[in-house]
Amino acid sequence: MKIVMAHGSGGNATRELIKDLFHKYLANDYLDKMEDSAILPVSEYPLAMTTDSFVVTPLEFPGGDIGKLAVCGTVNDLWMAGAEPQYLTAGFILEEGLDLDLLDRVVASLSRTAKEAGIKIVAGDTKVVQGNGGLYINTAGLGFRKSGRHIGTDVIREGDALIVSGDLGNHHACIMSQRMEIVNSIQSDCANLGPMVEDLLQAGIEVRAMRDITRGGLGTVLNEIAEASNHAVEIEEKSIPVDPEVKSFCDILGLDPLYMANEGKFLCITAQEHAERALNILKQNPLGTKARLIGSVTETGKPLVTVKTRLGGKRVIDVLYGEGLPRIC
Amino acid sequence: MIRAVKILINGIVQGVGFRPFIFKLARELDIKGWVNNFSGGVEIQAEGERVEDFIRRIRADQPALAVIVSLEITEIPVQHYREFTITESRESEDKDVLISPDVAVCRDCLQEMFHSKDRRYLYPFINCTNCGPRYTIIKDRPYDREKTTMAGFQMCPECHQEYQDPLDRRFHAQPTACAVCGPALKLLDCTGNEISGNGIGINLLQEGAILAVKGLGGFHLVCDACNDEAVSRLRRVKERGAKPFAVMARNIETALKEVTITELERSTLAGPSAPIVLLPRKKNRNSRISPQTAPGLQSLGIMLPYTPVHHLLFQGTYDYLVMTSANLSGQPLIYDNQEALAGLSGIADYFLLNNRDIYHPCDDSVMQMIGDRMIFIRRARGYVPLPLFLKQEIKTTIVGLGGEMKNAFCLASGKMAFMSQYIGDMHGYENLERFEQELYSFQKVTSIVPRKAAYDMHPEYSTTRIARSMDCPKFRVQHHHAHLVSVMAEHGMDDPMLGLICDGTGYGEDGRIWGFEYLFGNQEGYERKAHLEYLPLPGGDAGAKYPLRIAYAYLKKLMTQEEWQQTEPLWTKLSSQEKNILDGQLRSGFQLFETSSAGRLFDAVSGMLGICTEVTYEGQAAIELESVAEKWLEDGNTGTQKNRNEFLEITLQASMRVKALAALLDQYEKTGQTNAEGRLRLIEQYNEMAGRTDGSFCPDLYPALYPACLEISGEPQPGVLHVKVGSLLKEISNDVLLQKDPGEAALRFHYSLACQMLETALFIGLENKKLPIAGGVFQNKLLTEILLFLAGEIGVEILYPQKLPSGDGGLAFGQVLIANEALKKEPVSN
Ligand SMILES: [Fe+3]
Ligand SMILES: [Mg+2]
Ligand SMILES: [Zn+2]
Ligand SMILES: [Zn+2]
C-alpha cells in the first residue's frame, strides 16, 4: 500500500491512517486527548527548546532510519544545552507514493527511540504532498535544565580541553555508501547522547560547552565555537578518531572526516583539569569507547581553528566554501 | 669647450660598484664634479671637455651587476669644480632605485679567500661590491648598511678603510666584513651544543652525516650525494617521497661527468645568479651519484658553489653534495637559527650556523633549457627582486596574490612589476604566515604599498580568503586568463590574441575545473574558444594522487561496454574496494568533478602505462612519463637502430600531419567557404585524416601517431571546439594490453598531443602566426620542444614564458594586469 493524496484530505483516509498507524505507536496521555494543544505542567527549572527538520535519503539505512534520526537529533540538541529532554512534537510530511509499510517501520522506530530517550510525544501533525514517495519529519523538543549549571560558548577560556565522544564521519559515509550503492559494513552512528551527557554532569565535570557534531562536521563546529567564544582552538591530526573503514572510504572519495556529518557524536569542552576524568567517564559508556582528547583552547581574542598535522606543521581549518574543489595545479 | 651636465641614472646602480666606476671614469676623462647615491638612483654632475665620451662610456662600460633602466641628461651652467668627488647619500622621497638580487661570490673574492697571505684567508663571509648577499639581508631602503641585517656588526678600522676608499673593490660594499669584525660560523651537534675540532664539518660529511647549513636565503640539508646510505636516510627522515634532490657539484668539470651541458646552460650555471639547472644525465652509466637522489628521472638538478661557505665545504674529498632546501614536508623554508635547531633536530645530525641574519627567506632558483632559452621552473634567489618592465603604465599600486601551489605574488606600479620569490604551497598555516610576512617586507623593498588587489577565482584558495579580508578594491581573475596575459605581457603583446594554456587545475567561469584551454583575449577580457572535453575526476585532489583512478574513470566514461570489458588487465593494481567506490561515483556523480585538465590527462596516461601509480610530489606522473619517453629515445640514439627508426617515423608523420592540416586550411581560406557549414565539413575532413579509419576503405594516414579528434559543441556554448581524446586513450590502452613498450607509447603520446595542440590552434586561427603558451604542463621539456619543432615546420612562432615560470609561479603577473584594467573602469570592490 502506498500513500495517496486522499490520505491528506482530512476525511476518512486520514482518520484511518492516524488510527491504524500513528496511534498504534504513539498513543499516550497527551495525544489520546485529541486536543488542539497539549497542556504541560509548569516547571521550576529553566526551559530549553529546539526544533529541527529531517530530510535524508534513503529513509532507512544501516544503523537507523529517519524516525530514529528525528528523535535523536532534537534530543541531542537539548542535551547539548545541558537540558534533560521532556516533551517532543512531531510533524510528518508524506509524499504521495510513500510505502505504508515503510512508514509503519519509521513511526515504530521513532516511538521506540522516544521512549528510550525518556521524552514524551505531546503533539503531532501529518500532511500529504505530491511527490515521489518521500518523507520528511520535523520535531521540536522541550527540556529542563535541572542541573542549574550554565553551559555555553561564553564561558570558554584559554587552556580548556576539547574532547570528541567517538569516531567521526560514520553517518555521512554510511549515507553516501547507500546513495552510491556501495556495499560495505559502515553504519550510521545515529544515537541518543543523553546517557553520556548525564554521566558527565552528574560526576560534576566542569563542562563549558557541548555541540553535537552534525552537518558540516567537526571542522564547522570548531569554527562556530572559535567564532562564538572569540578563542583560538588547536587540535591534533593524529588524535582525531576515525574508523579505518570510514578512513579508507574517505581517502578514495577525497572526503575529509573533519567535514563529515555524524548523528551520535559530540564535542565536549571542559576545564583542562577535568579532561582526564571526563574522558574516562565517556569511555565507560558503550557509545563513548572511542572518545579522545583532541586538542585545546589556545588563545583568547583570535577566532581561528588550526590542526597540528602528522608532519609537525599547522593547517588552518576553515569553514568550507565549496565542496572540496580540486586545487592541485 | 667645457660642457656641464646633470645625469640621473635609475636601475640597479647601488651596491654594485657604480660610484667607484664613475669616479675612475671621471678621472680618466678629466671630468670634474661629483657623484651621489640617492633613493632614486645615482646623480652625477659632470663638467669637462669630454662629457660626451663620459656619457657614452657609462653605458658601454657599466659594472657587471649594474642594470641601467633610464639615464636622463640635463644641461646646467658650469660650476668650475676643481676635482671629482663622491659625496654622501642623501635621503629622498623618490624611491625608484632597484635593489640587486643576491650574487654568487666573485672570482676576486675567491682568490683572496684561498690566498694564505690575505687578511680574509678562509673567511667564510668574504664579499665585495661585485658579489655577496643583497636582497636577502635588506630590510628597507635606501640600501645602506644600517638597513641590512649587517647593521649589528661594527666594521673594524681596516674594513672601514676599504669601505671608504673609492678606489677599493669594497667601497660602500654594505655587507663587507672580515674575521675581526664580521659574522662567524658555528658548528653544533643535534642537541645544540657547540662542537670543536671538526672545522666546518667536512669530515662529518665525508663520514655520511647530514648537515643543516645556513646559506644565503635559508638553510640547506646537505650530505654526500655519492653516499647511498646518507641520501636514503635524508629521504627517509625528511619524508620526501620520490621528489628529486638538487646536487651541488664541485665545479663545471665534475658536473660534466654526470650531465651534459650546452653553452647556455654552462653560462647560466656559472653566472652570478647561480641557479639550479635541470640537466640531462649522461647515459653511460658510471654515475657515482646515489640513485636515491633523483629516482626514476633522466635529469638532475645541478648547481655550483655560490657562497664562500660552499667553496670551503668543497675542500672535502666529495665531488657532489645533495643540497636541498631545509623545510619540514609541506612547510616553508627554514632561515632562522633557532627555528632550524628546533625544526630540524630529527633530520640533521649537525648544524653549521652563522650569526648573519636572513631577512627575506629565499629558495634556490630552478631553471631548465627549453628550445634555445632558459626558462624558470622556480624563480627566487639570484633573480628576485628584479622587476619586469611594462609597456603600459599602471596608474595605481596593485598586488596580485597568486595561486595556491607554488605561490609567488606580484607588486606593481608605474611601469614595473615585481614578482616575489617563490613562497610555496599555501595549504599550511606556516606558509600563510610566511606569505603575509613577505607581502609586508616586499613592500619595503619595492616601495609599493598596494591599494588594489587581484586574486584567483577559486573559492577555496588560501589567497581568496586573504583577499576577502583585504579592505580595498579587488578583482577576481580567471586562472587561465591570468596565465595568458602573463605570457603575453612578457613578450610585449597587448592586442587580443589566441593562446594555449595547459595546466593541472584552474577554477573556471562555469564552476568546473579547467586546464587545457584555448583563450582568445588580452588583459581586457577573453573568450574561451576551445578546450579539452570534460572528463570525470573522481575524488578531486585525492583522486589526482592516484593516476590509475583517473585513467579508470576516463576510460570507463569514454568506452562502450564491450571496449570496457577488454580493459580488465589494466586495473590489477586497483583494489576491489577502490573499483567499487569508483563505480559508485561514476554511477551517482558523487564527489566527481568535471575537468578539462591537461595535467590529469598526462596523469591518466602515466597511470595506464604503469609508469606512475602514486603521486608523491606535484607533477610526478607527468615528469616520469616524460622521463620514460626520453629514456626510450636516448637508448635509441646510442643503442638499437629499431627505436631510432621508429622515432624518425613518429617525427616525420607528426610534421606531415601538421603541414597537411595547414595546407587544408589554406585551401579552405582560398575557396572562401568560411561559413559554419564549411567549417563542419573541414572538421570532418580533419577527423578522417587525423583519426582512424576502420581499415576497410583506406589505410590509416598516420599510423605512428595516436589519433586526434575535434568536435564543435552545440548548447550551451555553441561553436566552442572540444578536443576529444577518446580514441587516443583507447589506443594507448590497447598498446598496454598488447604489452608494447611504455617508452614508445609515452613518446608517441607526447608527439600526438603536441600535434593536436597545434592543429586545434590552427583551426581557431592564428593572427600574426604567433601562439603564446603557458601553464605548468609546458615545463615539460619534451612536449614543449616538440611543439616548437612542429610550429617551426609551419612557420608559427611559439611564445613561451621565459622571464617567469610557466606554472602558477607566473600567475600573479597576469592577475595584476587584468585587475588593473578592470578596476580602471570601475573603482569599486566586486
Ligand atoms: Fe595554473
Ligand atoms: Mg540539530
Ligand atoms: Zn667579490
Ligand atoms: Zn673587518
TrEMBL record, chain A:
Q: Which Gene3D superfamilies does this chain map to? A: PurM-like C-terminal domain, PurM-like, N-terminal domain
Q: What Gene Ontology terms for biological process does this UniProt record contain?
A: protein maturation
Domain of life where this protein originates: Bacteria
**What is a single Pfam family found in this protein's UniProt entry?**
AIRS_C
Task: Name all PurM-like N-terminal domain ranges.
Answer: 35-143
List, for all copies, the residue spans of the domain called PurM-like C-terminal: 157-307
CDD domains, sorted: HypE
Per the record, the similarity remark reads:
Belongs to the HypE family.
> What protein is this chain from?
Hydrogenase expression/formation protein HypE
Q: Which organism is it from?
A: Dehalobacter restrictus
From TrEMBL, chain B:
Query: Boundaries of each YrdC-like domain copy?
Result: 195-382
Q: Which UniProt keywords apply?
A: Hydrolase, Ligase, Metal-binding, Zinc, Zinc-finger
Entry-linked Gene3D superfamilies? 1.10.357.160, 3.30.110.120, 3.30.420.360, 3.30.420.40, 3.30.420.560, 3.90.870.50
The UniProt entry, under InterPro entries, shows: Acylphosphatase-like_dom (IPR001792), Acylphosphatase-like_dom_sf (IPR036046), Acylphosphatase_CS (IPR017968), Carbamoyltrans_HypF-like (IPR051060), Carbamoyltransferase_HypF (IPR004421), DHBP_synth_RibB-like_a/b_dom (IPR017945), HypF_C (IPR041440), HypF_C_2 (IPR055128)
Per its UniProt record, what PROSITE patterns does this chain match?
ACYLPHOSPHATASE_1 (PS00150), ACYLPHOSPHATASE_3 (PS51160), YRDC (PS51163)
Pfam entry (one):
Sua5_yciO_yrdC
Q: In which pathway does it act?
A: Protein modification; [NiFe] hydrogenase maturation
The organism's superkingdom is given as Bacteria
Reactions catalysed according to its record? an acyl phosphate + H2O = a carboxylate + phosphate + H(+); C-terminal L-cysteinyl-[HypE protein] + carbamoyl phosphate + ATP + H2O = C-terminal S-carboxamide-L-cysteinyl-[HypE protein] + AMP + phosphate + diphosphate + H(+)
**NCBIfam families the UniProt entry points to:** hypF
Q: What is this protein called?
A: Carbamoyltransferase
